[in-house]
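Extended Data, panel c. Modelled sequence:
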Amino acid sequence: MPENKDENMTDVILSLLESKFGMKEAKSKVKVDRSHRLGRNREGNSKPRPIVAKFNFHQGKEFIIRNPRCLKDTGFSVSEQFSQEIIEKRKLLYPELKKAKKRGGESKVGEGQTYY
């Protein structure tokens, strides 16, 4: 998402929900507690900084995480922000996940566990 000097990240997120996710009246359905861009503003850099958002209600976050197909071919992506501890646990589980997928089963990594 291109950066503007005086942008309001909450408005940007709600606008994205309405335009890309097709959520009508996102401002009344989703409450954003905090939102900001990561890192310092890099003058002259064409690559925009990632956006971090904390939602008041779990349902808003889950809607976005569970509907990444809405962002297909848009250049946007969505992911959860995990603590370093969870990141390390997930790294250890990925070899197990790859083995399960090779066997033909559907599997995914949750918070510190592998699900088959």
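The beta strands are 32-37, 51-55, 108-109, 114-115. This feature is highlighted in the accompanying rendering.
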